[in-house]
Amino acid sequence: MKYVNFCLIAMFSLALSSGSVKDAVPSIGYYPGERLPDIVLTDIKGDSCNLSDYKGKKVVVNFWASYDARSRATNVRLHNFLKMTNADVVFLSISFDQNIHVVERTLAMDNLDTISQFCEVNGPESGLYKDFRLNRGFRNYLIDENGVIKAMNFTSEDLSVIL
User: Any idea what DSSP says for residue 36?
Assistant: First the structure.
């Protein structure tokens, strides 16, 4: 009888604890192996293009904001690395600053080209910010020629190994 009680208690404990098991990967944003959705990008001048316009090319998509020091530094490093190595990769830099003049001044201070620099002037209120759940931190993605995410949250040093 003691053995039966022990087994019942053990099974009951397992049943209760199974509800607290967490997934290995949290369901936030998009991950390697998935396709990045087509997004509309608005450049510094107000012109728009789609991410799908770059299909057939490797693309680095980097989300950042001037008020976030880490993401800003990553933006500078990735931009300079890709420019220096002449890698066959398109760099798309998307700022979530709500003031376009802040973005322009930041790009000038960081000595970055304005080509491939985009801005979501709605900042944290934009659909893109919410879809990618960037309230949990800015990130970057390496997209292959078919639109599939190959890597995320990488540094320029990581990118030199990946490419």
Answer: P
